[in-house]
Write a structure and sequence with these properties.
The chain has 422 residues and is α/β, with parallel strands linked by helices. The protein contains 16 helices and twelve strands.
Length: 422
Amino acid sequence: MTSIEPTRMTTTAPNKNILYVENGIGYGGAIICLRHLVRNLDRTRFTPMVVTGRTGPQYREIADEAEWKHIPDRHIDIVGAHRKLDPMDWIDKIPGLRFIVNQVLARADDLFNFLPFFLDLLWTAWRFKADLIHANNEPLCNRAALLVGKVLNIPTVCHVRGDQDGSRLMRWAFSLPSHFTPVSHWVSKSIQDKLDIPEHKISVIYDGLELEGLDPNTSGKAFRLQQNLHDDDFVVGLVGLLIPWKGQEIFLDAAKILKDKIPRLKMLIVGGTPDDCVAFENHLRQRAAQEGLESVVQFTGHNTDMPAVYNSLDIVVSASTSPEPLGTVVIEAMAMGRPLIGPNHGGAAEMMTHEKTGLLFTPRDSASLAEAIDNFHQSEEKRVQLGSAARQHALETFEVLKHVQLIQDVYKTQLSKKKAPN
């Protein structure tokens, strides 16, 4: 008698739902890298949904790539209140008043900002049937997302993009995530040293970009025309959101040093301004006017065609005064093969090799920055050579599919540890 093997039924595991939460200060590198990740996520394994605390045209574009929801993370402006109250010396003349004011603002933030965001996010995650929450920013500012993970008993992965102060509140926030994905080894070392995060809870994953969209042959002529720049202008651009730690003040100081040294010098401040930092932009513009820099310094505002911007610049500058965790500008400029100058700390120092893939300057030192700019100005050969080496390094290191695969491996590991319901 011939035996008949039973038919084996194969089943496909259902997709895992990944809820991404982004509540940074504005539309910058963090949200750009998140969009690259979501666009390239393996849809046969994962279904993404993105929640953002801010909204606007660029945020709304996310709805074309994944399910998207805006949950306001700010109903009252606590940051603005601090900006007005902190410089007031008279408050300190009344014993204990500063403490009381800070406590009132903190509780108002909890009641009117944090609590509504947390409840709406909890409802959203429950309805979405999230299997894992991916917080795209620091644990402290993403504590609502991480607490939602605790309530729903699902794993949480937290991107870490900056240095930490090691405070008691910071330590509490860092106790919440299931796993951390710092964007550089420098950030990883920071959270291990300052917050005692065990190495087994950390996976260093460099941000990934769709490098094919960063075409080094893109023409920058249209942008130069838009900015009234001439072919013989020597154009240096500081690219980044207009927020104090991005180094625009240092850039203006360097412009003062170089304005009479480099013929036809143009120093461009390229980037949009978050709502919280409008006063800072006004301050920068006033400085440029008062210090006689209006013929040298130009403010371009936000631009969506970054390849054209990069290729319009003779030199790209990153000048962050606080160590940048990685720096999207650094990655993009390298991928475009542009001559790049960055501060010798944080992610820039990890990504760049001085005199090989770019030039590093002493952080917060305008004279050192000016010297690096002049160094590049004097040698077109060096600009071409270092730019070419930078592009090769970027292509090998920051390809988005490599980034996505490493993130998905983290998801797989964390989902396999998910606790079974009681």
